[in-house]
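Notebook, bench 3.
Goal today: get a predicted structure for DUF1146 family protein from Lentibacillus salinarum so we can plan the truncation constructs. The sequence was checked against the plasmid map this morning, with no discrepancies at the termini. Length recorded as 77 residues. Pasting the sequence as submitted so the record is complete.
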Amino acid sequence: MFSSIGLTAIVSMVSHLIFIYITWRVMTTINFDPLIRKGRETEARVLIVFITIFIGTGVSRFFLEFIQWSQDLMYLF
């Protein structure tokens, strides 16, 4: 019982980190320079990190929930 909870926690953490990394790689390809004011580069980078974390965890949660839903389908029949 508790080992399955631990395994779920590890899979969730790894999934979040992988999707945050993928999102970061995508975000670095976008040119945000025209949107950033001079003297505000640090704040813009912090905002991009927060947006990356927000998108990455959202996508990760979607995939984790989708996997859980597909496992729960066996209780339907």
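The chain has a mean pLDDT of 92. The helical segments are 2-28, 41-72.
Flagging this for group meeting.
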